Automatic annotation (TrEMBL):
Gene it is expressed from: dapF
PANTHER family noted in UniProt: DIAMINOPIMELATE EPIMERASE (PTHR31689:SF0), DIAMINOPIMELATE EPIMERASE, CHLOROPLASTIC (PTHR31689)
Role summary: Catalyzes the stereoinversion of LL-2,6-diaminopimelate (L,L-DAP) to meso-diaminopimelate (meso-DAP), a precursor of L-lysine and an essential component of the bacterial peptidoglycan.
EC number(s) recorded for this UniProt protein: 5.1.1.7
Family that this chain belongs to: Belongs to the diaminopimelate epimerase family.
Pathway participation: Amino-acid biosynthesis; L-lysine biosynthesis via DAP pathway; DL-2,6-diaminopimelate from LL-2,6-diaminopimelate: step 1/1
Source species: Halopseudomonas salegens
Catalytic residue positions: C75, C219
Residues flagged as site, Could be important to modulate the pK values of the two catalytic cysteine residues: H161, E210
Keyword Amino-acid biosynthesis (UniProt): yes
GO cellular component, as recorded: cytosol
GO MF annotation, one: diaminopimelate epimerase activity
Localisation: Cytoplasm
Top enzyme class: isomerase
Protein name (record): Diaminopimelate epimerase
Length: 276
């Protein structure tokens, strides 16, 4: 059988998107790893599935798998692509789309200029919710990584994030530190490791070493986590422009208990078919 898919990206964080409303496929981690391979497969950071909702209040169910084949809770750049996808494929006529994810409900809006605004829900800070091993909740934790101790924020945007403020993003060893933080024993479900440099109170640079995918050109939930961590520490003010290697996102957050709003592009690259 030939399975239809769309290759998309959000600021270079790239995806294989499959409509599982009008098609059916049986997936397993080995097949996802094969498809994600950039030499032997299609090549992507995440696989995104569009499914019917199980919650009648929602329009769709959005499932996310990292390139390593593991299912995860949330993907921000993917959420913007999801909105474009369901509109382009005429799976909905709505402009405000309510979506169920393993990380909680999100709301997607495609703007007239083509940018997509996502209400990502409220960030969570209690260590058990991240999950992160700590005696009590704090804005900053001391984390031993190799020979050094980093001051990090640990929070959930539906998925787990560890954010470190650095002086100079270009001289950070993201390739070395990223996997050490991703697999740190204090993060029992592994973690996405973000490194942010402050440019001014409303502008940062960010690189993210993603759990299950390595460093990507952009991470939407990573941008939300970094902006929230900076605002919570009194270093940043909403709205925050986040410069990632693949481009810029705008993040708004009004404070604890309030949802995080993320605005940015969603790009379709090509339509494909693969034999399964
Ligand atoms: N690229 C994504 C995040 C994808 C999931 C992440 N790697 C995880 O394991 O939690 C984004 O744009 O948010």
């Amino acid at each position: 059988m030939l399975l239809r898919f769309t290759k998309m990206h959000g600021l270079g964080n790239d995806f294989m998107v499959i409509d599982l409303i009008t098609q059916h496929v049986s997936l397993n981690p080995k097949l996802i790893r094969l498809w994600s391979d950039r030499h032997f497969g299609i090549g992507f950071d995440q696989l995104l599935l569009v499914e019917p909702p199980t919650d009648p209040e929602m329009d769709f169910c959005y499932r996310i798998f990292n390139a390593d084949g593991n299912e995860v809770e949330q993907c921000g750049n993917g959420a913007r692509c999801f909105a474009r996808f369901v509109q382009d494929k005429r799976l909905t006529a709505k402009n405000e789309i309510h979506v169920q994810t393993n990380g909680g409900p999100i709301v997607l809006k495609v703007r007239r200029d083509g940018q997509v605004r996502v209400n990502m829900g409220a960030p969570r800070f209690t260590p058990a919710e991240v999950p992160f091993q700590a005696d009590a909740e704090a804005d900053i934790y001391a984390l031993s990584v190799g020979q050094q101790t980093l001051d990090v924020a640990a929070l959930s945007m539906g998925n787990p994030h560890c954010v470190t403020v650095v002086d100079d993003l270009d001289s950070v060893g993201v390739e070395q530190l990223g996997p050490l933080i991703e697999n740190h024993p204090r993060f029992p479900q592994r973690v996405n490791a973000g490194f942010m440099q402050l440019l001014d109170p409303q502008h940062i640079r960010l690189r993210v070493y993603e759990r299950g995918a390595g460093e990507t050109l952009a991470c939407g939930t990573g941008a939300c986590a970094a902006a929230v961590a900076g605002i919570r520490q009194g270093l940043l003010q909403s709205p925050v422009k986040v410069d990632l290697p693949g481009g810029q996102l705008l993040i708004e957050w009004a404070g604890p208990g309030k949802p995080v709003l993320m605005t940015g592009p969603a790009t379709r690259v090509y339509e494909g078919q693969i034999r399964v």
